[in-house]
Amino acid sequence: xxxxxxxxxxxxxxxxxxxxxxxxxxxxxxxxxxxxxxxxxxxxxxxxxxxxxxxxxxxxxxxxxxxxxxxxxxxxxxxxxxxxxxxxxxxxxxxxxxxxxxxxxxxxxxxxxxxxxxxxxxxxxxxxxxxxxxxxxxxxxxxxxxxxxxxxxxxxxxxxxxxxxxxxxxxxxxxxxxxxxxxxxxxxxxxxxxxxxxxxxxxxxxxxxxxxxxxxxxxxxxxxxxxxxxxxxxxxxxxxxxxxxxxxxxxxxxxxxxxxxxxxxxxxxxxx
Length: 272
Ligand SMILES: [Zn+2]
Fold this sequence. Notes:
Elements: H1 3-10, H2 29-46, H3 53-70, E1 78-82, E2 89-92, E3 96-100, H4 101-106, H5 110-125, H6 128-135, H7 141-149, E4 162-164, E5 167-169, H8 175-191, H9 198-212, H10 218-223, H11 227-239, H12 254-265
Bound molecules: zinc ion.
Zinc ion (ZN) binds next to helix 5 and helix 8.
């Protein structure tokens, strides 16, 4: 079974009816939290999550430390580790973030994972999905929301196909949203005391992986053409920061390396 087939089979998502009448009007934070919570329940029924208490605790402590700086609405953040070897991370409105085990295993230091979490936090704090819902003009609101809420992010080495009504949808944020999430991620991690250079470093790791695994990557190429530009953009953003603000930031920690080794040592999911 190919990676794509395996991933799409676990990402078959049914939308709850309560989501369907939210489009076309301003969405309050409470509504956003309710929708995100409903969506998280649906997603978590479909995905295999890592339950290891130490792993779950670590990613939530790290995520909360960044979200506390990023979020001015007091959202109750939840960070999940998905037991999938694919490289992916995504977020839902209201403060829900998922990061795949496969992405964690490809990081080499704390700053890289912190950058990924900060980018996903940025999509939530900048309300990218919610704004798309508010301005949605599409006739098929249900399909649009499925696309938006499963905002399969830029870290996907393969696309996540969202199966809905027999059709496969590939969801994607706009280029502007991605740029903004990268930009705020640089600010968030820096203010959290973590080195923002982990963000372009992570992009480089993914670019290298793409070089090493060219077969089966065509679909990903077609929808994720921005990686090189994002490396340059985040490096430029970092270069604009006062040199003093980059002093004494953490790039790594022994605790992170313990966490990473524990993730790698988790039993491997049987092929479905
Ligand atoms: Zn993104």
